[in-house]
UniProtKB/TrEMBL annotation:
InterPro entries: Osmotin/thaumatin-like_sf (IPR037176), Thaumatin (IPR001938). Keywords: Disulfide bond, Signal. The keyword Lyase does not apply. This is Thaumatin-like protein.
């Protein structure tokens, strides 16, 4: 009898859990506010070229994890969408598949996770190429952003055409990449360079919890490239592009 009651209770709890999982998709409004074309990319989602002021509305399924949105610069695609980009390049050409090649600023997200929460952040773990922010649209949840002139101030050893590498990409050691898990690495002078300029963003793989933001599931989000006009002073398209 006890076993039967426990089984019924378990099925009831599972029913309640699944009954509260949203069935509608989440919309990401991706806006290019940069004074140059940005080829937006998303995983899942693909890609699209955005001139200044253009928007791409992307629908993402509930329960999606390890999602990311980024911008590609210096792209050259033919009529069939084949081609490459200077920063943020990915397989699939214009219709991007997989993840981008560093350096690329990332808006990361995981939707409808435990206790019906969305998790999102701006990450510099893959370096920086374009200032970005991500903002929940229909809630009072906080915005995550990185709008500093990282490219203009990038340490010489990390600087590449069109962007600024994270040291993990360059050195590929546990000191910077935290390959051995929690406690295997700590902030470095390079990660502090990113952290000081963008305190809301992930600066290295084991950054603190203050760089992860949460919002109740059901919100939609806006991702903006070059969100702050004041951040554009030194962010015109580099001559190398």
């Amino acid at each position: 009898m006890a076993s039967s009651y426990s089984t019924r209770s378990l099925f009831y709890l599972l029913f309640l859990s699944f009954s509260f999982i949203p069935t509608h998709s989440t919309t990401f409004e991706i806006l290019n506010n940069c004074p140059y074309t940005v080829w937006a990319a998303a995983s899942p989602g693909g890609g699209r070229g955005l001139d200044h002021g253009q928007t791409w509305n992307l629908s993402v399924n509930p329960g999606t994890t390890s999602g990311r949105i980024w911008g590609r610069t210096g792209c050259n695609f033919d009529a069939s969408g084949h081609g490459d980009c200077l920063t943020g390049n990915c397989t699939g050409g214009l219709e991007c598949t997989g993840w981008g090649t560093p350096p690329n600023t990332l808006a990361e997200f995981a939707l409808n996770q435990f206790t019906n929460l969305d998790f999102y952040d701006i990450s510099l773990v893959d370096g920086f190429n374009i200032p970005m922010d991500i903002t929940p649209l229909n809630s009072k949840c906080a915005k995550s952003s990185c709008t500093a002139d990282i490219n203009g101030q990038c340490p010489k050893v990390l600087k590449v055409p069109g962007g600024c590498n994270n040291p993990c990409t360059l050195f590929k050691t546990d000191e910077y990449c935290c390959f051995k898990g929690p406690g295997s690495c700590a902030p470095t002078a390079y990660s502090r360079f990113f952290l000081v300029r963008c305190p809301d963003a992930y600066s290295f793989p084991r950054d603190g919890p203050t760089t992860t933001f949460i919002c109740p599931t059901g919100s939609n989000y806006r991702v903006v490239f070059c969100p702050s006009r004041s951040s554009l002073v030194n962010l015109e398209m580099p001559a190398s592009l």
